[in-house]
Inverse folding.
């Protein structure tokens, strides 16, 4: 694992996670010094939420790049329904796509992408 894959970031505030199966419902929160890690793995994005305290908790979410893109696009569309946004949130939401665009442009095509041409 490279150094960038080990980096965790603090989560400001609290995160809640719920999973609803037909016969079971799981719900948990990450409130005491929660952290997250996000990285690319093959054709997926791994997002890991963790909390190290009396109750160690961890959740890993694997999203295909297309699902992540579609999710972000749907979220962007939903912003038209919410006309107000805190100024600091707005600044952050505008800065991150610039960073993503710059970083994605620097990546090289994968071997599987090259062989499919």
């Amino acid at each position: 694992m490279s150094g960038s894959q080990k980096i965790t970031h603090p989560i400001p505030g609290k995160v809640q996670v719920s999973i609803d199966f037909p016969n079971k419902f799981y719900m948990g929160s990450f409130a005491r010094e929660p952290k997250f890690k996000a990285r690319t793995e093959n054709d997926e994005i791994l997002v890991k939420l963790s909390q190290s305290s009396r109750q160690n908790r961890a959740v890993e979410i694997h999203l295909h790049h297309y699902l992540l893109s579609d999710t972000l696009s749907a979220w962007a569309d939903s912003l038209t329904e919410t006309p107000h946004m805190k100024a600091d949130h707005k600044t952050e939401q505008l800065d991150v796509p610039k960073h993503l665009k710059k970083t994605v442009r620097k990546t090289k095509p994968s071997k599987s992408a090259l062989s499919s041409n």
